What we know:
Layout: H1 2-8, E1 14-22, H2 28-37, H3 49-55, E2 58-65, H4 67-83, H5 87-101, E3 105-114
Amino acid sequence: MLRASRRLLRPGGWLAFHTIYPTPGLSKAAYRRAIKVGPRAVSTRRRDHRELLATAGYVSIEIIDLTGQYRRTILDFLEHHKRLADEDRQADLRGSLSALDEGLLMRSLFLGRRAE
């Protein structure tokens, strides 16, 4: 997908995406826990996202850690689902919050530029 996206960009154009992923360097057990308790959309690739972008031909790669903002968003969602009495969704959100607090998950914005 990254290579196909690069082909669609004009030279010098930027790609930006964000993802939730297990914190790099986790043990196998911690990695499995991160996947289990994290949100359904957690990225499960073991390769580093910077490496994936570079391999796909992107340059000027930037990574912006959004984990703190993501934690605040989860807390807001949790309050909303408490008002709705949506206990299943609350349990999912509590799992994600727990994984963040244990350092198992991160959320980052990835930027890469197509070479000129």
